[in-house]
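Hi R.,

Here's the chain you asked about this morning:
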Amino acid sequence: MSARLIAITVTGGATLDAELDPAFGRAERYLVVDADAGEVVRAVDNPAVNAEHGAGIQAADTIGKLGVIAVLSGRFGPKAAAGLRSLGVAMYEVPAKLTAAQVLDDYQHDRLSPR
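And here is the predicted structure, written out as tokens:
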């Protein structure tokens, strides 16, 4: 069985101890996490973090290349949300000021609702 990969937007680190980045399109980095094993598979810097225009669309394109089934972030702009929906990627909005580990725990225990 293949891993259930999810992405969590983070700032300030590349581990599950990193703080959730509240904005999807301009997130500093995406942690790709095996949701079943609870382990970081890779950390991907967001190439759109400083984009002048279209950060959400560019970020959705980046996520589409990572093979994830869901993204957990503080919020999603309308263009980013449309892009992720078109890719079949689920979105979960979670409160800021949590660590990636806390967000992952909420996801694993079905305490989050898809957007």
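One quick note: The domain at 5-108 is CATH 3.30.420.130 (Nucleotidyltransferase; domain 5).

Cheers,
M.
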